[in-house]
Amino acid sequence: MANRFSTALAAGAARTASLLGPRTMRLIARFNRRVTNPIQRLWASRLPYLAVIEHTGRTSGRRYRTPVMAFVENGTLSVVLNYGAESDWVRNVRAAGSASVVHRGRRYRLTSPRVLPAGSPELPAALPPAGDPPRDALHATLTPETPAGA
């Protein structure tokens, strides 16, 4: 059920992004960063179709926590890039080559991040190639993190 819901939600978000265009989506991204994201961070790490990506700024060195719609399957994470591959969080994760992810209350290490075109066979089947043009996705390997002292 959660998978169907997340697939439908991702498809709707991709269609909306296509209709609004990149300029409007950048404005929405700015609004989300300041208003929506702080609220979503309260629950995103616990829900099945969301995750929080913890990354470090490329130039500032500041730590960030970004809520995303996530498809986690078979040790991988995929995120549809409705705001594009030039979003700060995507650039930060790619530049660092890794990040931490909290999904369903569990902490993971994200490694080998790369941007794949929609419809790539490496992406999960549940990930909808929606939008016009279809949206790329960040795809990476997930490894459970071992708690300190364990």
Automatic annotation (TrEMBL):
Superkingdom, natural source: Bacteria
Low complexity: bias regions: 116-125
Region called Disordered, residue ranges: 113-150
InterPro entries, sorted: F420H2_quin_Rdtase (IPR004378), Split_barrel_FMN-bd (IPR012349)
One Pfam family cited in the UniProt record for this chain: F420H2_quin_red
Protein name in UniProt: Deazaflavin-dependent oxidoreductase (Nitroreductase family)
Organism: Actinocorallia longicatena
